[in-house]
User: Fold this.
Amino acid sequence: MTINQIIENNIVKGLNELFGAEATGNQVALQKTKKEFEGDFTFVVFPWLRVSKKSPQITAQLLGDYLVQHTPEISSYNVIQGFLNLVVDNTYFTQFLCHNCQNIEFGFPEQTAPKNIVIEYSSPNTNKPLHLGHIRNNLLGWSVAEILKANHHHVTKVNLVNDRGIHICKSMLAWKKWGNGETPESAGMKGDHLIGKYYVMFDQAYKKELEQLQQSGMTNEEAIAHSSLMNEAHRMLQMWEEGDVETRHLWEKLNSWTYQGFSATYQRLGIDFDDTLYESKTYLLGKQLVETGLEKSVFYRKEDGSVWADLTADGLDEKLLLRSDGTSVYMTQDLGTAVMRHDKYHADMMIYVVGNEQEYHFDVLKLVLKKLGYEWANSIYHLSYGMVELPCGKMKSREGTVVDADDLMEEMYETAYKMGCSLSKLDTMKADEATCLCNMVGLAALKYFILKVDPKKKMLFVPEESVDFNGNTGPFIQYTHARIQSLLRKAENQKIEIKKVEHCAMLDKERDILKLLHQCPEVVQQAAENMSPAVIANYLYDVAKEFNQFYQDIPILRETDVEKISFRLQISLFTACVLKKGMALLGIQVPDRM
RNA sequence: GGUCCCAUAGUUCAACGGAUAGAACGAAAGUUUCCUAAACUUUAAAUACAGGUUCGAUUCCUGUUGGGAUCACCA
Assistant:
């Protein structure tokens, strides 16, 4: 049981015994005491004045006396207005430090109901390279998966590759027409970038064609209908669906180039998956489900042969499920994917990390699944995150207003390198060590910048300006860790042993940082409940900041009292552990020197 | 037009209905004979507007204004 729970239980007992309140546990919530007041936990008594029938001051005093008497961990209290501030005994914190400093399980909260969770993220299209939007998606998905694991859930990370459809045919057609057999090797390009080049090429040629057709007197619609390029692409899609050998062969070849490119990007980003699924393998199941729904009269067929779900009774619109030519749409595929995924993993919860622009899509998906009789539709959770916007607005691949993932990571590395040089941090390092460090620092800056923001909120990215290396940033936390490691190395060189100190007079700064470290498990738990790595990121910043103040104000190795040195080293060691573990949940590595 | 989301210092982000709304960047001023100055200290600076609920509202409700998303035989 955590100390919060112990105190809360005693508050419930106190309220009942003193005032006959008939209170229960979930009505009582403890909060952290604000910094400017004395105390560690605060209980607000205002809501209980009705049952105590006494003034706020008296009510709080009575309860305070009761708690000090019945809770060994609480040494004293004070009352300000209706706020009862409870002071935890110093010994509690010194013992907490002794018991958890070397505990590798520390930070992972207790879990009474572990779940089977499948989390999907990334979900790229194979016709273009990954960009900043994918980076947010990947980092969020990966980090949330780690956070859920830290809360003892069984997590499967899956990537659903959108490997088929008209968009893929566009790059295939462009490569076939104008590629002259170009390969990633011959072009000296990453495979995904090469394919992306042809995708853009198609779009440019298509636009030019439309312009010419319009100049020759056609309306916009007529031009679209008469575009030979688009018609060719559609023919290619049909051939693909019919299983034409040559088309399939081309498709496989170009996709394999993209996968090689993706794989390199994922690796550099530090992202991985337990399983990869392909839409080309699930869309047929979706079609079957639609047929079943037709038989059950859950869906209906229009005169032109298209199949629809009528969701107007539920406040949504009518939704197309099969085109009049019988081919499937996005929703059809997703229905198949959902059923397949549920059957394959026996999931209690299926998380989809997908942008908030698709909220409507997921509302529809859940509703249609329910109409088909799948009760588990409620276990689908759309982890809906905000878009990353540029100063010029939304990112659009075809218009070239994207921040490419590979370029961005390279820029981060270069910035870290320049910075390292100007601070003379790299002077004493070997070349490969410096490279490794700059990669670590550059990535940390990028990842932290993205993950510290609440996932639900959209965020603004200003190239050359957004990603900082000072202040509330990844490198700041890395620096704090490196500083502690340096301290510990020095201690080892001086043959100083870190002994367990069970009782020790404490300075305010020491107490502050211990109190903060003590909160780690509940922070990890809260991050899981909110599915928000930002909770962890902001906590780690607080820890690092608190430690730097401690480090600045209080001598550690320069102290003369052996007990105090030991105690402070132990605090430092523990801080380093929490920083390292926490950063690992964000997918950020921490160096031992920088 | 229908539905949904958002609005906090100059800027980017915080704040389970609780106390004097926190940080960072940027601006101004300081701290290195001493454990890493990628650090620390100090100053100035914000809840879009109007109502309501509450002992108490940045947070909940209603309206106004301003942004964004979505409602495709696109994915």
